[in-house]
């Protein structure tokens, strides 16, 4: 009889056990998730108001997004919920056609995100310059801060000492101990104080009615027709693109903060699955949230447990403990979000020493991203403009790195032009003017050993140069092309009407 297999040692079993099963890790994840859940409540209510829907639509979306993405997403510890960017996208649809059309658009947007994920859209993140990423982070910090100002204007005087006290707890407590998240201590302390003292200050309950039941699964009540598809398709596409952009950029930010790698392709289709579930449960859709993600990560969370528990705690808080949650003073949550804004902003990027060392073009890209994002309150537009400015700056910079040096042979019968640099539409426009057609000898050699042909514009420029020389009876030979340049030149030379 063969011997029975050896039982795994306790150390091996521990290695296979998920990290979040550790009591210490689970405690950290649970406390972080609770703080995030508390911070999600006013945000979800506010975004519901922006979208023109009942607060419960935003709250349910935050629950379903967080719980689903915890299982399907590619970036552990990242928080997905109802967001302002998605609210802005779907607001016109809800206003003009009703909330059921909004739910249908969320489902379709999720399907498009799955398709985009399968097509590898996540790989496009490599084309985002660092300056755009820095601008994205700084703009988010500014928008988070600006979103808190309405809660600090035209409010009872007691709000200000509460807000200051919350900031004091958030700044000083971490210096004494990190056993308990400072945001949780600030929220509990200020809530207890306002209730005990009977202070009449704005509370979470003033932001909207808390739901008193669980979300219900259902199919959006819209006609299954081509007309419906035409109505919701533009909003669904915008939701898919904006949601993926914010989620992938936030995932990359968390990668950098935690010095870990995440699966961006999985995150892409995972966001799609989360939005589909959200649409069927009557939510407004969503994506990754930088503010709540920063709270989660700064609180020490590193696993999917915190994301899952944030969604569960949110639902429990607003359904079972809605009356207690409604008592939380907005000043406490505003203090938490202001500290998140301060921690999110990349202060090194605006330090005078950094600005002196940084190329002007890099600073312009960063400021363009920040300025447009803050002006439009739309991260997608800001990032798009930032990328466009970066492309123009790069094209201008590379265009000036092309040189043409001509050397006449000792016998005076041949002139060799050595072209150095990357040849594309921006750098090849002036190439035709770098040759001395009138005074060159009967034989000209254009050496491209140190150059690369990238596009048809360059081939057209070389055709124009050859045509000018041939018109004067000069023999032109192009040599030194690498394999890629030779293939492109061979395929297009002489076929581009008009020469240059």
UniProtKB/TrEMBL annotation:
<feature type="transmembrane region" description="Helical">
    <location>
        <begin position="365"/>
        <end position="394"/>
    </location>
</feature>
<keyword id="KW-0812">Transmembrane</keyword>
<dbReference type="Pfam" id="PF00916">
    <property type="entry name" value="Sulfate_transp"/>
</dbReference>
<feature type="transmembrane region" description="Helical">
    <location>
        <begin position="56"/>
        <end position="72"/>
    </location>
</feature>
<dbReference type="Pfam" id="PF01740">
    <property type="entry name" value="STAS"/>
</dbReference>
<feature type="transmembrane region" description="Helical">
    <location>
        <begin position="157"/>
        <end position="173"/>
    </location>
</feature>
<dbReference type="InterPro" id="IPR011547">
    <property type="entry name" value="SLC26A/SulP_dom"/>
</dbReference>
<dbReference type="GO" id="GO:0016020">
    <property type="term" value="C:membrane"/>
</dbReference>
<protein>
    <submittedName>
        <fullName>Sodium-independent anion transporter</fullName>
    </submittedName>
</protein>
<dbReference type="InterPro" id="IPR036513">
    <property type="entry name" value="STAS_dom_sf"/>
</dbReference>
<keyword id="KW-0472">Membrane</keyword>
<keyword id="KW-1133">Transmembrane helix</keyword>
<feature type="domain" description="STAS">
    <location>
        <begin position="416"/>
        <end position="500"/>
    </location>
</feature>
<feature type="transmembrane region" description="Helical">
    <location>
        <begin position="221"/>
        <end position="244"/>
    </location>
</feature>
<dbReference type="InterPro" id="IPR002645">
    <property type="entry name" value="STAS_dom"/>
</dbReference>
<dbReference type="InterPro" id="IPR052706">
    <property type="entry name" value="Membrane-Transporter-like"/>
</dbReference>
<feature type="transmembrane region" description="Helical">
    <location>
        <begin position="101"/>
        <end position="125"/>
    </location>
</feature>
<feature type="transmembrane region" description="Helical">
    <location>
        <begin position="132"/>
        <end position="151"/>
    </location>
</feature>
<feature type="transmembrane region" description="Helical">
    <location>
        <begin position="180"/>
        <end position="201"/>
    </location>
</feature>
<feature type="transmembrane region" description="Helical">
    <location>
        <begin position="312"/>
        <end position="345"/>
    </location>
</feature>
